[in-house]
Design goal:
single chain; 8 helices; Alpha-Beta Plaits; 8-stranded mixed β-sheet; 4-stranded antiparallel β-sheet; binds ligand FM0
Length: 327
């Protein structure tokens, strides 16, 4: 069977996915909204062969660990079931996501895998169907199927057939700047999957997260529709702070922030006090992503660049959804 190569880009959540209602099917407790980025992506080539008796996974040129291979076999098993064939594949993934960029490559990785593997086995799925396969690799991956501004619908059904992502706005429609600020920090100990599980199960603040998430989503949708940056920035910063507040109420409590994280948060709020509109968001780690309109990108960059705790800054804009490359 022919090899197929697909590319998918990383995304950054503006309204966070934080908590599952179903761990096995990776179904979220709430909708989330993200921006797919232009700079960082994964390129994945998949080739099925009846000559194989298990999946083989090459990650950045090296044979992947058994654990990493098991992770990619999950979506491949779904694809095999769709076609009713027990056929295995060679998966060759290259992440153009420098670890210094402060982004996880799982979102772009599972989106590229879903796109390449379905085509390689002879399926021709639409984006919504692809997002449901990517979702079962890693939740946030479903959003990377699309470019620009994307919403992941949590769905209500137990089987997850109504939990998929769709595009809210094309990447060329709103040229925001996203600055990923890499800070001097110790490696993070609690991965997002474990962090959100502990939070859902034990956090006294998790009910507050769920009570206000629909309002955050509605504000964000309107802000994106109206290209109202102040409205979007305000809600995304609040949403990130609420997400991280839930971790403090977990048992045992935990915190992704480190000293440098809080220093950057203060710098951004001081910039706003001076009239430079910039907002921050933070995921499951100490690094900060700063969002501003392109007209302010340079002044925000220069403000951050000189700070002692800043190790690296990568500037992105909204980017494309999946694409297929010639082999
Ligand atoms: O991206 C967001 O909405 C917010 C987060 O990045 C954390 F801040 C969660 C990402 O979670 P993910 O890695 O997708 O978890 P999985 O489904 O357990 O693989």
């Amino acid at each position: 069977m022919e090899a197929v190569t697909a590319r998918a880009h990383t995304n950054i959540a503006l309204i966070k996915y934080w908590g599952k209602r179903n761990e096995e099917l990776i179904l979220p407790m709430n909708n989330s909204i993200s921006i797919t980025l232009d700079k960082f992506y994964t390129t994945t080539t998949v080739q099925f062969c009846s000559c194989l008796n298990e999946d083989m996974f090459l990650l950045n040129g090296n044979i992947a660990s058994k654990e990493e291979t098991e992770k990619i076999s999950r979506p491949l098993n779904i694809i095999r079931k769709l076609v009713g064939r027990n056929i295995f594949a060679v998966v060759d993934s290259i992440n153009d996501v420098p670890t210094s960029a402060g982004f996880a490559s799982s979102a772009s990785g599972f989106a590229a895998l879903a796109a390449a593997a379905t085509k390689a086995i002879g399926l021709d799925l639409d984006s919504r169907e692809l997002s449901q396969i990517a979702r079962q690799g890693s939740g946030s991956a479903c959003r990377s199927i699309y470019g620009g501004f994307v919403e992941w619908h949590k769905g209500e059904k137990e089987d997850g057939t109504d939990s998929y992502a769709e595009q809210l706005l094309h990447p060329n429609e709103w040229k925001l700047s996203i600055l990923s600020v890499l800070l001097e920090s110790k490696p993070k100990k609690i991965l997002s999957r474990e962090g959100m599980k502990r939070t859902v199960q034990t956090s006294v603040f998790y009910s507050g997260w769920l009570e206000t998430i629909d309002q955050d989503l509605s504000i964000a949708r309107h802000a994106i529709n109206e290209r109202d940056f102040e409205k979007l920035g305000t809600v995304l910063e609040k949403n990130a702070l609420k997400m991280h507040a839930t971790t403090l109420g977990a048992n045992p409590p935990f915190m992704y922030w480190q000293g440098a994280t809080i220093e950057i948060m203060n710098v951004i709020q001081e910039l706003r006090a001076k009239g430079i509109e910039a907002y921050f968001t933070i995921d499951a780690g100490p690094n900060v992503k700063v969002i501003c309109e392109s007209k302010n990108e340079e002044i925000v960059y220069k403000t951050l660049q000189g700070l002692p705790m800043v190790k690296d800054i990568h500037t992105c804009q909204p980017g494309p959804g999946i694409s297929y490359l010639a082999n």
